[in-house]
Amino acid sequence: MNGVEGVMKAVPAGERVEAIDWARVEDDLDRYGCAVIEGMLGHDECAALIEQYPRDELYRSRVVMERHGFGRGEYKYFDYPLPDVVEGLRTAVYPHLAPVANRWNEIMKIDARFPARHADFIRRCHRAGQTRPTPLILQYRAGDYNCLHQDLYGEHVFPIQLAILLSQPGRDFSGGEFVMTEQRPRMQSRAEVVPLGQGDAVVFAVHHRPVQGTRGAYRVNLRHGVSRLRSGHRHTLGVIFHDAQ
Fold first, then answer.
1. Strand pairing of 145-149 and 71-72?
2. If residue 101 lies in a helix (H) or strand (E), which one and from where to where?
3. Structural domain of 145
4. Where are the beta strands (DSSP E) in 44-177?
5. What is the number of other CB atoms lying within 10 angstroms of the CB of residue 90?
6. Which helix (H) or strand (E) holds 209?
7. Is 71 left (phi over 0), alpha (psi -120 to 50) or beta?
8. Is the peptide bond before 54 cis (omega within 30 degrees of 0)?
9. Residue pair 76/86 in contact by the 8 Å Cβ criterion
10. 34-37 and 173-175: which strand pairing?
11. Nearest by Cα to 133 from 13, 8, 50, 241
């Protein structure tokens, strides 16, 4: 058992996830396209994930952002089997977000619907050839940043994502804020800067979400990224619910 798994078993993911005020999360997602969940992971869990970042055997690939025009910094995609803490959160959080995703798609007249259980959705991804796991850890140093983007990995894309800040602002790093932009038709983009503490999670729309207008609902386009790190080191756990091709 690795350090992350040992810490996680103290409070199972299912229990901590069930204690979240999901009605408030859903309301914030509808209003702003994102919602903050405080204390999703504890200090020891965050530290254990950071400490294991150099263990390449846990990951299927490493991406240096600057080589691809994504910004500056790097990230690693976990390989299967995922660490217990990551698999536990992915499995426990998904059922609370699937109804939101289905409601949004119905409003936006998008045909895709998502099953109640994450295992069933992953089987759908794998049948379509999307078999590579997508949870990842991102690492930034002073001067690094992540360009605004959308995480779209194939035909089957889950429209909501989870990111957890593993480092402590003010101690481990400065700058490096999570940023979202929202483009509404015939309007200028709206920016949202999301303050996070260590262990806090942000749940956010990956691509589109519906907004109610005077003539009915319409679709807005979202992107997310990270502003320039002023100093230190910043690590984030990203939990993406669909797998990649």
1. antiparallel
2. helix 84-107
3. 3-239
4. 59-64, 71-72, 74-78, 136-141, 145-149, 160-165, 173-175
5. 20
6. strand 208-213
7. left
8. no
9. no
10. unpaired
11. 241
**Does residue 244 belong to any structural domain of this protein?**
no
Return the DSSP state at 129.
T
State yes or no: pLDDT of 10 exceeds 90.
Answer: no
- Please say if the pLDDT value at position 8 is more than 70: no
Tokens encoding 109: 């007249």
Instruction: Give the percent of the chain with pLDDT over 90.
Output: 84
What does the pLDDT look like over 74-88, one tens digit per residue? 999 999 999 999 999
Bridge partner residues of 5 (DSSP): none
Residue 112 · residue 104 · CB < 8 Å: no
Pick from 237, 203, 184, 12: nearest CA to 100: 203
Whole-angstrom Cα distance, residue 230 to residue 215? Answer: 44
What's the domain count of the chain?
A: 1
What is the Cα–Cα distance from 168 to 75, expressed in whole angstroms?
18
Is there a domain that residue 179 lies in? yes
User: How far apart (Å, rounded) are the C-alpha atoms in residues 242 and 245?
Assistant: 10
CB 239 within 8 A of CB 89: yes
Q: Is residue 245 part of a domain?
A: no
At 183, which CATH number? 2.60.120.620
Q: b/e string for 95-131 if b means 16 or more Cβ within 10 A? A: ebbbebbbebbebbeeeeebeeebeebbebbeeeebe
Do residues 220 and 32 touch, judged by C-beta distance below 8 A?
no
CA distance readout (Å), 201 to 22, 39, 52, 58: 13, 7, 20, 22
Structure tokens at 60: 């299927």
* Residue 187 placed within a domain: yes
